[in-house]
Fold these 2 entries.
Entry 1:
Amino acid sequence: METHYRITFYGILQERIASELSLNISLKNVSEMRCYLEENYPFLRNIPYLVAVNKTISPPENPIRPSDDIALLPPFSGG
Amino acid sequence: MSRYIRQTCLAEFGIEGQNRLKEASVVVVGAGGIGCPVIQYLAAAGLGTIGIVDGDIVEENNLQRQVLYGTSTLGANKAVAAADYIHNLNPHVAVKTYSYRLTKENGSAIFSKYDFIIDCTDNLETRYLIDECCETLKKAWIYGAIHRYEAQIAIFNYHGSPTYRHLFPKQNIDKIPDCAESGVLGVLPGLTGMLQATECIKLITGIGEPLVGKLLIFNVLTMHFMTFPFSPDKPKTTSKNECRVYPLSAKEYRDNAESYLLVDVREANEEPEFPKAKRIPLTELHLRTNELISNKKIAFVCRSGNRSQQAAVLVAKTNRFNQLYAIYEPLY
């Protein structure tokens, strides 16, 4: 069964991917989300980024559900 | 002292807060767009000692946001020009200037003299350096960084709270653009620095709730401010027992071969070839974990079952993969 996720991107990821992205795919947890995104956007493998699920920075084993609010947060560099 | 009366009359802050500021010392790394307001507000508030590290000189295109400088200081070293500004603003503050770049060699010696470190740099490399020095010296640092119209702020390594590298592991990182490449409205680093100075005053005086274990992100176009909490614990050092590695028999694998990515960790010259296996020798695996990314479960295989277990444990430690299986016997 395919499910629908909405992901918000910050910083450089917004420029390289999009502000928001909808995914129609079935994913179990943060780790699978990372794998899926890194397969489709290989440059992500060279950027350390955080995944926030419902505004909490979440480890790879954290489960995700279609209603969850997902955000990808890379470090910012400027100062 | 009438200079500080507007803050000492705050009940939570009081004379006690002022005394704590007077006794405190802070070093600001980078006296640019973020560093200027940090230095300015901490000096105005009556901090005891401020160190300023910056090897750059003031250029005309800095003046749009680096508010401690003006036309008359063009060409001056920023640490020195900022110190001159502070002497006039508040002569009670002791200022120490380090008119050179922060390096691996000088970092610990500078930081060891201060209570807190404030990151106002414009690159990731220096942030990793600050993080490493602060972890060694067991000192907290206040992170601030910007990208176009957004900023991030957090406090790291405060009484053993997570480090920057815990959130953003140091790896082979693509260049992330700085202000020179992305452009910046002067108010954004200004706001960022003021928020970092606020956090610094809170840490020193013990008032309020500092941004420990939380990453603040704000956007000046939308004026959305969001805090993202993260686990207060440092990542656990994964021991062999804690790894999520499951044993897999040869038969179990063969019955369900389609659901696994089979990774053969024998050396390139070892025979026979296993059908459908991806060959990544154990000795190269740590450099090639990106090749394991797939939607399948990962099964490691070798000749007898020793190296497959080692490989699965090694990959489990990256915390990037789950469903790791080690085939514990000869496959065929």
Entry 2:
Amino acid sequence: MDEKPIIEIKNLTVSYGERTILKDINLKVKKGEIFVIVGGSGCGKSTLMRQIIGIERPMEGTIFINGEDLTAAEGGKRRKILQNFGVMFQSGGLFASMDIGDNMALMLESYTKVDTDRIDDLIDLNLSAVGLRGYENYLPSELSGGMKKRAAIARAMVLNPDILCFDEPASGLDPVNAASLDELIKDINRSLGTTMIVVTHDLASIMNISDYIIMLDTETKGIIAKGTLAELQNFRENEYVYKFFNRLA
Amino acid sequence: MGEGSQKEKNYNIISDNDVLIFQPITPMTLDNAQIYDEFTLDYKYLEGKSKLIIDFSLLKTYDSYMVVFIDSIKRELSITQIKFAVENLNDEMSHFYDVLTPKGGIEHDLRRYTFWFIWISNIGKTTSEFFKNAFLFIEFFGDLIIKLFSILIKPKKVRWKDFPFHFTQSGVNAVPITFLIVFLIGLISGYQGALQLTLVGADILIADLIGISITRELAPLMTAILVAGRSGSAFAAEIGTMKVSEEIDALHSMGFDVDYFLVLPRVLAVMLVMPILVLITDISGIFGGLVAAISTLDITVLGYLNQLHRAIDFSDIFTGLGKSVVFGFLISTVGCFMGMQVKGGAESVGKYTTTSVVTSIFLIIFFDAVFTFIFSTLGI
């Protein structure tokens, strides 16, 4: 695994008005790893992900993507940096008025000059990769919750991003579907080497997929613990962290 | 190997007797798709060749486009006599290719449908949806009429708590806009009428023109159209959103009748508020006509009002008020019905909200025509 971080965050602070959500966050994500952000409800997990993918801007701090400063970048440069990301939102975020094929074609038609026939092939290829081959003419409303999430992953993958982000992939899914989605995340990571950022509080997912974990704290608004699963299972400096990760074992 | 030709160093094309060797150099990525599409979309290089070899020895960077590139050539050459081979794919590339090569899946049409196919199938879908909705609406409409009468026996079945809110929203809050619009309609009709009446020296008949047209037609019609735009759409959106967020299912599961709980308070509020609004707009429209009359014709305020008194009688006012009750019923019923039809997500809410306004306006004008025919037949 390459040691150079693909994402580096320095002294990140996020506030909404008077309310501080994240305070002085520092982290590095290595290329090719599955980086899991965990924590209780309202600790700022999703906010941190939204900062990383550039939907929101921080009050303080810097975010480097592939060595480029996202926080200072504007216009075309910012768009170029953000094209490093593919995102699967909690509810999928698929456009309800478009079928799955059009949801994916939108990105290819807007950001590449790929021929129309090749666009169809790329849609087929990405849907096959997530186990949804043949569903390009289905509307999102015609798919089950798990299939919607898979389709959202296919859409996120279509431009071959370096980093795939997942917001609560297991939410709303039964354990079997959630586990199969975890397997898909692992498969894509292992076979294509894509870096994964996963926001979750699903214990089974954390145990199954994580290479590296950070835990956010609702009280301090910062990172309370970080390390591999094995390290955090032996993290005795904080009782909450120790209990949280040992419930897994 | 024979003489080779080169294309701007993006790739090499080497001709070796009846074998063509294609060596990609430029990164084979989505960004460079156009460069490689030049080759895959134009097989002129393959004339007289019996084999094509794609040699990946010079390629360093690639993404999913590489898989598509190989597969598309493989697919297109499979229906020709030309043989095809891939050489010098390193382990990493082979693994990438294997992982991403499409496999399995349900039966499907690989190509997305053509514009004409979608167009014709949309006509079919829209037609069948129209008839399906029409039947459902008739059922809903009939059911609601029965429930309206049942209130006379058991008034407590309706959730009266919501009634004042809907009455205020649909009625009181609509007064300023309906007043202004019908005032302007009266003013415009007055000015246009004045121009024509002056030509035949019948200036005073402006009061007849305004009085009858406003009370019988324009005030009820314009008020109904405005209420359909304000309240009908709001009902569709409110109930539709409740449907999406499973609130309607929750009501069903708690044993509530949605018609008594959600629909009838809205229907009764609009039915009751419509004649009041029309009475107000009758006044504003006549006032608009008065402004036009006294400012363009040689008519006094008293003269206008005297002539108005002679021109209109209670039947003119009450036909307008009577119609408005029916319009109110139509607007609220259509709004609630469309809200109930919502399924899926936010997009469906928007679709049915729009449909509710269009359908309400159509029904208002259609029933207005029916009323006009009935009243003229009965001599009212």
